[in-house]
Amino acid sequence: MPTLLFIAALMAASGFVSEAADSTGSFKDNFNIMWSENHFTTSGDGQTWYLALDKETGCGFETKQKYRFGWFSMKLKLVGGDSAGVVTAYYMCTENGAGPTRDELDFEFLGNRTGEPYLIQTNVYKNGIGGREMRHMLWFDPTEDFHSYSILWNNHQIV
């Protein structure tokens, strides 16, 4: 079963906010920090967290619970300005993304040069084989406000 992974590979502190999966639990009740724990700050009630970026690293976290199917959603605001080299990823995978036969669903928000359109790159891997990569040009500026990005995964489809 896949683990839902949120990788803030290179993300600005003011550019990312999310809400906990379980509205009654805190961040630490629902997620494990994968790296750079000092790049996370959490609101007093544990329902909102902020991820930071510096010149050395970003940060990443994963769900403690494993899921077979579901509706997965995240609210985020991308880094503004010249963000070439910054990749914000939101994905689900088996084997923590490391295995050669992993299954994986990707949303990757690609950084860009100032004035260029923003792109979301998606991909699906089955038994370690991708080849379904697509790039989608956004019709809005994802740096101006928070937007919800979702994956619906069930027995019949991935949307």
Question: Can you give a write-up of this model?
Answer:
The structure is a single chain. With 159 residues, this protein is mainly beta. The chain has one helix spanning 27-30; strands spanning 3-8, 17-19, 31-35, 40-42, 48-51, 59-66, 70-76, 87-93, 104-110, 119-125, 134-137, 147-153. The two termini are 18 Å apart. The model is unreliable at 1-22 (pLDDT under 50).
* Estimated share of beta-strand residues: 35-45%
Radius of gyration, whole Å: 15 Å
Lateral arrangement of strands in the main beta sheet = 3-6-1-8-9-10-11
Return residue spans where pLDDT drops below 50 for at least 5 consecutive residues: 1-22
What structural class do helix, strand and pairing data support? mainly beta
Count of beta strands: 12
| Mean pLDDT across residues | 77
Give a quick precis of the structure.
The chain has one helix spanning 27-30; strands at 3-8, 17-19, 31-35, 40-42, 48-51, 59-66, 70-76, 87-93, 104-110, 119-125, 134-137, 147-153. The protein is mainly beta and 159 residues long. The strands form three sheets. A seven-stranded antiparallel sheet has the order 3-6-1-8-9-10-11. The protein has a three-stranded antiparallel sheet with strand order 2-5-4, with no helix packed on it. Strands 7-12 form a two-stranded antiparallel sheet.
Structural key phrases:
159 residues; mainly beta; three-stranded antiparallel beta sheet; disordered N terminus
Write the layout of secondary structure elements.
Blueprint: E1 3-8, E2 17-19, H1 27-30, E3 31-35, E4 40-42, E5 48-51, E6 59-66, E7 70-76, E8 87-93, E9 104-110, E10 119-125, E11 134-137, E12 147-153
Antiparallel strand pairs: 1-6, 1-8, 2-5, 3-6, 4-5, 7-12, 8-9, 9-10, 10-11
